[in-house]
Design a protein that fits this description.
Elements lengths: L1 H6 L19 H12 L1 E3 L17 E4 L2 E6 L6 E2 L13 E3 L23 E3 L7 E2 L12 E3 L4 H4 L4 E2 L13 E3 L9 H11 L5 E3 L6 E3 L12 E3 L5 E3 L13 E3 L6 E3 L12 E3 L4 E4 L13 E3 L5 E4 L13 E3 L4 E7 L11 E3 L4 E5 L17 E3 L20 E3 L19
Length: 420
């Protein structure tokens, strides 16, 4: 029946045919990219060829045949940035990080033409001088990274004022690590608090901030990462944290923050890294720290004034693999056996406290799987009287420090097998 209908033309079958049309990038944008390339004295991407489709070039991202992204990260580019860059008016992301513009300035004008730019990364590329005023007018920017690797670019720096932030109401991530701001922390913190309440990442390590830092900076509701470490002249204290805090990474090391750790620190339920090392904190560890169930790294070393017992509940945090509590004034007897069931513990440093560690007797016939997978164990100056017997079964330890204790008697022969 179907055959007869087909033969009589009474049944029509429609078969969809897909036609793929490969578009071309705009001639003006291809020319702009080639002119940009001419400004580089070293450029290793060999697909940037005149007469070809620039949307198919390496590191070029297009949408509907308009260039919306340039990802030139880590291409060892040398030279200067040609103003033709600003003819790419549809750019949303621009990444020049990890290149070699050593001592060159960022182009001073033209940034206003990149009104759609939302992500800008110029980190670790050796730019110097002032951050152009035009960048501060890019109101759609959500991510800015101007950080430096101090050891590679320690003689290079930007000049940035807190007014840089006044139009940045969309900003979610700000990275200024090792940028020499040399200004009052209060000015920057106040500018951040007043300019954007949706900030998720603030990384300003080693920025030469000094003076008082207001507590409100810790209370930005959307903040996931806060790192203002390595600003030794910056001081303040911690606030009472609310239950709706969203911090995942909290790093204050090598600052002059002081005071007691608030009991509300237990409200940081999403916290994965807490680094308050080399500060001036004092008092006892709050019992609420047992609520930090997602914590992976805890570094409270070198505060010198933290005291009292080390809560056994810390060793019940199953995800906590790195614990650094050295050089404080923790005291009382601590049972080493507390770590017995903490199988994922990788590094433990309790050195230079006023602790008295009790030895942990290992069961004969035990195997390494019965103990934590420690790779680093530092128990210097912990009033040990004998070498802990459980070490006999720790074949993964690469670093062991038992110095300045009260160990006496014969050294067991198995000690030489540790780490093998």
């Amino acid at each position: 029946m179907v055959d007869s209908l087909l033969g009589n033309g009474l049944l029509t079958m429609r078969i969809p045919i897909r036609v793929f049309v490969i578009g071309q990038c705009l001639q003006t944008e291809r020319s702009a990219l080639l002119q940009l390339k001419r400004g580089f004295t070293f450029f290793k991407l060999n697909t940037w060829i005149p007469g070809t489709n620039c949307c198919l070039w390496e590191s070029v991202i297009c949408d509907e045949w308009r260039v919306i992204g340039l990802d030139l990260r880590g291409q060892d580019i040398e030279g200067t940035i040609d103003p033709s860059l600003f003819n790419l008016t549809s750019l949303c992301t621009l990444d020049f990080s990890y290149n070699r513009f050593n001592g060159k300035s960022i182009p001073d004008s033209g940034w206003d033409q990149l009104a759609n730019l939302s992500r800008l990364d110029l980190s670790n590329s050796g730019f110097v001088g002032k951050v152009p005023i035009g960048i501060t007018r890019l109101t759609k920017l959500t991510v800015i990274n101007l950080s430096f690797n101090y050891y590679e670019f320690k003689y290079l720096s930007f000049t940035i004022k807190p007014t840089f932030l006044q139009n940045m109401s969309s900003l979610r991530e700000l990275y200024l690590d090792n940028v020499d701001l040399s200004t009052y922390g209060n000015e920057w913190c106040s500018a951040l608090i007043n300019s954007t309440m949706i900030l998720e990442v603030l990384s300003m390590s080693g920025c030469s901030l000094f003076g008082f830092c207001p507590k409100q900076i810790f209370l930005l509701r959307n903040l996931r990462k806060l790192d203002i470490s390595k600003n030794p002249k910056l001081y303040g204290s911690l606030p009472n944290f609310s239950v709706d805090n969203n911090l995942h990474f909290f790093v204050l090391s090598y600052t002059n923050f002081s005071g007691k750790l608030p009991d509300t620190i237990g409200n940081l339920k999403f916290l994965r890294q807490l680094d308050l090392s080399s500060c001036q904190f004092s008092g006892r560890l709050p019992p609420s720290m047992r609520n930090l169930s997602l914590l992976e790294t805890l570094d409270l070393s070198n505060n010198n004034k933290l005291q009292g017992p080390i809560p056994g509940s810390l060793f019940q945090l199953s995800r906590l693999s790195l614990i650094f509590l050295a050089s404080n004034n923790f005291s009382e007897v601590m049972e080493l056996e507390l770590i017995k069931d903490h199988k994922d513990l990788f590094s433990l440093d309790l050195s230079n406290n006023a602790l008295s560690l009790s030895s942990w007797k290992a069961n004969e016939g035990s195997s390494p799987s019965d103990y934590p997978r420690l790779a680093i164990l530092a128990l210097a100056s912990c009033n040990l009287t004998k070498i802990p017997a459980f070490l006999k079964y720790h074949h993964n330890i690469g670093t062991l420090d038992l110095s300045n204790n009260k160990i006496h008697g014969e050294i067991p022969s198995w000690i030489w097998n540790i780490g093998n």
